[in-house]
Amino acid sequence: YQHRTGHRALGLEILSVGEQAFSQIHDLLNRLDRFSMTIPLPDIPHLRLIVSLFGPRVHLVGGTVRDLLLYGDGASGKDFDLLVTHMTYEEVERLLAGHGKTSTVGKSFAVIKWTMEGTTYDVAVPRTERLLDPTRTDHRNFVVESGPQIPMEDDLLRRDFTCNAMALRLCDGE
Predict the structure, then answer these.
(1) Which secondary-structure segment (H or E) carries 123?
(2) Alpha-carbon gap, residue 113 to 101, rounded angstroms
(3) CA atoms within 13 A on the CB side of 25
(4) What is the dihedral of CA 36, 154, 171, 111, to 10 degrees?
(5) What is the model's pTM?
(6) Structural contact between residues 172 and 38, judged by C-beta atoms closer than 8 angstroms
């Protein structure tokens, strides 16, 4: 199903998605037009600690934010992806290590697995991905750049196209 449309308020363009996905995205964008863009935060374990560690630099990103907007419940999946801006991977890891178990399984992608009291978070710093050879399609054909110099908006642009390019600042719900 191919459909090309623009969304005036958000400056988005939808090029090619399945019919059902298009319908959901279109409905969501229309709802966002009516939102004040400050929404109630989902029930996130350790929210106070996370905000005290990172302040306005920490955002809930991806599918949890999408589900919060679509269904009013972003915490049902218990999948918490956090993005911390204006800090290096090492700074974020150092802060988290004092408050739970950290694992660097995603270091090449600038992702830290952080577990505290049975809840695991994927905590990342902004990153971009660039293809090395446009004629190749294998999974090693790109370079990842990450760090505090990368704007959050650039990180969101690289996310998949199922409405996961969304961020919610945890200190105030914007």
Answers:
(1) strand 119-124
(2) 8
(3) 24
(4) 140
(5) 0.73
(6) yes
Contact between 170 and 80 under an 8 Å Cβ cutoff? The reply is no
Q: How far, in Å, CA of 117 to CA of 106, rounded?
A: 21
Tokens for 117? Answer: 């009291």
What pLDDT digit, counting tens, does each position of 112-167 carry? 999 999 999 999 999 988 888 888 877 778 788 888 899 888 888 877 655 678 88
Residue by residue, DSSP assigns 21-80 as HHHHHHHHHHHHHH--S--PPP--TTHHHHHHHHGGGEEEETHHHHHHHHHS-SSTT--E
Provide CB contacts within 8 A for 70, sequence distance 6+. Answer: 24, 28, 163
CA 47 to CA 84: how far, in whole Å?
A: 14
Q: Are strands 142-146 and 127-131 parallel, antiparallel or unpaired?
A: antiparallel
Long-range contacts of 157-160 (CB under 8 A, 24+ apart): 158/127, 158/128, 158/129, 159/61, 159/62
